[in-house]
Amino acid sequence: MRFVSAGLVAAVTAACAGGSPGVATPHPVLRSEVVPAGYVSLGRVTADCHRTQLWERFRGVPATSLFCDRALLDRALEEQAWRRGGTVLAGVSCHERPSGGRSCAATLARPAHGAEVRAPKATPALPTDSDALSPDVARRIAIDLTPAVEAYARSPRSGAEVQEFASLPIGQVELGLLRARCAPERCDAEQARAGLRAAAGGLGVPSLIAVRCAALDAELSCIATLAATERDPETDPRAH
Fold first, then answer.
1. Which of 53, 161, 186, 222 is deepest in the core (most CB within 10 A)?
2. Over 60: is that where the pLDDT of 5 sits?
């Protein structure tokens, strides 16, 4: 059975001509409903992603190919603000497409040169599965899937909704093995584990069993058994 993979694409459209994105230097980025007084617009920033999953053995698929959620897009907008030197994302709006993709857009702004401005009232950013799992980091994490069942299809969920267990819970069955890996200089253990949860969520899997992380053969690797109830609680009343 084939299921769909998610490629994340983030693009910036500037309102003014010229200039290329700079190096992403993290700094605080506030959210506001409108561009605040005393701030200038740097143009629009957009981010979209589309999930195309597949339930079959695969190896080395980027983590961003398996999930597409609002928190990841919000973080992608923030990374673009870092590159452009913006300090406010104004009027953030997000939409889901019938095809399963999502897109978010906002106006990027910063204080006008020489202007004395009051910072806008902060609107908190969406929480991510891990503060360390940015889109840039997620692209560096490779995912391997070794299925133990021929077919599996459930609605995707966020990585934060994926639970970790030391042993297989009663009423759940094993689905296969999932591994998240990267070079040690490209991600750390927390990021690899967050990538594992996010990938499991993108596959619609609710449970990770016996998660273990280690450095092996010049790679940082986190591996776990995937598990779920035999019946889908969303579609089969007998699952409850």
1. 222
2. no
